[in-house]
């Protein structure tokens, strides 16, 4: 992998990761939306190579897509799994709220928000389309992508997103919220949101679960979340990033 966060690795080792959690500890403090965004994430200035930007994926609408095709736009790229019971619903809710807040901008150069799966085997276009529609109405500037395992893994390996496929815990298996089919495995993964500027340079990274008001997570996903996920939602970490901070990063890149 291209980049690892030493802090994240230490947290994973000490706390252990379950489901798709980042392993963050939680407090009852609600993060302030006015906190300084540059104290939360990691600023960068690294050109994403053509070999990564040219990788092709498929959107939930069935369209062929790539990062290269979004040249001229700020891109907000997040890792996601539609069958995550922990932090992904919170991540997605905050990304979607940010996308809605940015939707008023000129479409020719407005930010584009992408949720790319870490579980391409189950996150088909049909599954992603249903996931996207849970956030009704889904903003037009938010896309959900899947693709071949090779391309998905190549991109996430480049950006340094940690992933590990594991068997489901013993006991009654959780069921796909869309199909009702029992789940046989989970994908543990780190949580990051990457900000690329209009020239295709990686400029900023936010790590860990954000603060999301409870009402922004769709009911179907809230019902699907496990106790750890509900705890993350109701008791966010004091270091959780916010929609306001994501918007501040975007503004700095325009």
From TrEMBL:
The keyword Metal-binding applies. It holds the Pfam family SCO1-SenC. PROSITE patterns: PROKAR_LIPOPROTEIN. Disulfide bonds join 84-88. Keywords: Copper, Disulfide bond, Metal-binding. Cu cation binds at residues 84, 88. Belongs to the SCO1/2 family. This is SCO family protein. It comes from Flexivirga caeni. The lineage of its organism: Bacteria, Bacillati, Actinomycetota, Actinomycetes, Micrococcales.
């Amino acid at each position: 992998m291209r980049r690892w966060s030493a802090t994240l690795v230490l947290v994973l080792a000490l706390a252990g990761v379950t489901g798709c959690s980042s392993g963050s500890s939680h407090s009852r403090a609600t993060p302030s939306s006015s906190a300084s965004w540059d104290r939360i994430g990691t600023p960068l200035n690294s050109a994403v190579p053509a070999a990564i930007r040219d990788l092709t994926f498929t959107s939930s609408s069935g369209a062929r897509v790539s990062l290269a095709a979004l040249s001229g736009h700020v891109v907000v790229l997040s890792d996601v799994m539609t069958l995550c019971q922990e932090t992904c619903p919170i991540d997605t809710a905050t990304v979607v709220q940010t996308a809605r807040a940015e939707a008023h901008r000129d479409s020719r150069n407005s930010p584009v928000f992408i949720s790319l799966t870490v579980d391409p085997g189950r996150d088909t276009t049909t599954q992603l389309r249903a996931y996207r529609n849970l956030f009704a109405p889904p903003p037009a500037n938010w896309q959900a992508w899947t693709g071949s395992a090779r391309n998905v893994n190549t991109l996430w390996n480049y950006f340094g997103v940690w992933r590990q496929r594991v068997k489901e815990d013993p006991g009654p298996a959780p069921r796909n919220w869309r199909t009702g089919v029992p789940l046989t495995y989970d994908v543990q993964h780190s949580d990051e949101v990457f900000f690329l500027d209009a020239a295709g340079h990686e400029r900023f990274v936010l790590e860990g679960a954000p603060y999301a008001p409870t009402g922004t997570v769709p009911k179907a996903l809230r019902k699907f979340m496990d106790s750890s996920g509900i705890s993350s939602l109701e008791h966010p970490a004091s270091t959780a990033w916010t929609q306001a901070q994501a918007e501040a990063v975007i503004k700095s890149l325009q």
